[in-house]
Amino acid sequence: MIASCLLGCIVLWSACCDRDSREARRRDLQDRIDRLDARIALIEHRAQAATDALRIRLNEALGELREKSRLTASRVAGLATSTEESFRRFDADATFAVNELDQMVDRETRATTPR
Length: 115
Fold this sequence. Notes:
The chain is built from three helices and no strands. The protein is mostly helical.
């Protein structure tokens, strides 16, 4: 009886730690999105001072970036409600989406950086 109680406590502790590590992972990804959103705001600021042709292109790109950021944040938020079994799949999807957003922001940052 005592052994089964101890085993139950260990299982609950393990699940708690897993939940904590999943929440930490979600927070890390959300922090990356927040930093990318700040970079998107910088691109928006640079677009205002750009030439007409570049401003038009950047405004189109900014629309895509904002939408991608919104969808990526939604995927990351889904990590909070995922089960332990589905977490790995959601984590892989969310990580891929954040990395893709990061690449898009890098590309547009390079386009607006004065040379």
